[in-house]
Amino acid sequence: MDVMSQDEVVELRRRSTRIRLRDLRMVYEAGLGHIGGEFSAIDILTTLYFGVLRIDPRRPQDPDRDRFVLSKGHSAAALYVTLAEAGFFDPDELSTFQAPLSRLGGHPDRTKLPGVETNTGPLGHGLPVAVGIALSAKLDRADRRTFVLTGDGELQEGSMWEAAMAAGHFGLDGLTVIVDRNGLQQGDRTESTMRLEPLADKWRAFGWHVREVDGHDHAQLLATLRSTPFEPGRPSCVIARTHKGHGVSFISDQVAWHHHVPTPDEYQRAVAELQAQLDQLPVGPA
Q1: CA torsion 116→233→236→58, rounded to 10°?
Q2: Rounded to an integer, what distance in angstroms lies between the CA atom of residue 155 and that of residue 25?
Q3: For all residues of the chain together, what is the average pLDDT?
Q4: Quick one: which H or E segment has residue 149?
Q5: What is the pLDDT of residue 242?
Q6: Residue 252, pLDDT above cutoff 90
Q7: Based on the number of CB atoms within 10 Å of its own CB, is 194 exposed (0-12), middle (13-18) or buried (19 or more)?
Q8: Arithmetic mean of pLDDT, 58-70
Q9: What is d(CA 181, CA 88) in angstroms, rounded to the nearest whole number?
């Protein structure tokens, strides 16, 4: 990796930590949210929005833009902070999260907020919509790409595998699914609730080219997501091994933090940990 790439990775780490801090504050102040699944996904979101997606926040409806669908829509706070950081709307609006009449509800709404491609929240909907988006690009002979982030617990929905089968059948190589494989869902571990492994083999059986990465390693994420499509004529699947609540020691890999709101003491401890991480990162070009 050259010097410029090293600087880029450090900047992604810096952004991810800032986004975690703002996400934490949003959930704490609103008294609502899903910190665990948001924190497992933030490194993926940061890499996509600041290193991979061809998008322009000044032209959110550009027909040639890449599309991103947050299938695990309950992690909306992480998406909102990322969109604000990318310039889609004023970051001051983040303080309205989940307030009455706010554009920043518990689930993303494309009719309210620029940068949101489709409404998600009920699990199992995002990938089917993304398949339709990717199919339209193929029919248009366009090079716009579609990325979708799904939770691993969400893969217990039958609609996800119907969509996966369709993507393989139509050879949608413009489509990339990223599985946030943190191993936890509401109430328990995924393998105790409904076993998913061998997960990579399942995707391959549906006609996808699969790669597995450390979902918190920005260099791995950047190299992998920039190399899509992995194979002409086949959709791409990235299984990102993550930890729910990543970034804060007492939140990481704890099922109780699926939708737990921090107490004042927990909030201060979490802020202190994240701020320490940010302070330790070298200062480089933005």
Answers
A1: -30
A2: 29
A3: 96
A4: strand 146-151
A5: 98
A6: yes
A7: exposed
A8: 97
A9: 28
Residue 209 contacts residue 236 (beta carbons within 8 Å): yes
1 pLDDT more than 90 = no
97-154 confidence digits (pLDDT tens): 999 999 999 999 999 999 999 999 889 999 999 999 999 999 999 999 999 999 999 9
Kindly give the residue spans of alpha helices, DSSP state H, lying in the chain: 3-30, 35-51, 76-86, 126-139, 158-169, 190-193, 199-205, 218-226, 264-280
**Residues forming beta bridges with residue 175, ordered by sequence position:** 146
Give CA–CA dist 56/66, Å, rounded.
10
Cis peptide before 108 (omega within 30 of 0): no
Q: What are phi and psi of 110, to 5 degrees?
A: -70, -20
The one-letter code for the residue type at 161 is W
Percent of the chain at pLDDT above 70?
Answer: 98
Please give the Cα distance from 151 to 74 (Å, whole number): 10
Locate 269 and state its tokens: 């401890």
Q: How far apart are CA 229 and CA 77, in angstroms?
A: 28
Domains of the chain, CATH where assigned: 3-280 (3.40.50.970)
Residue 286 has pLDDT above 70, yes or no: no
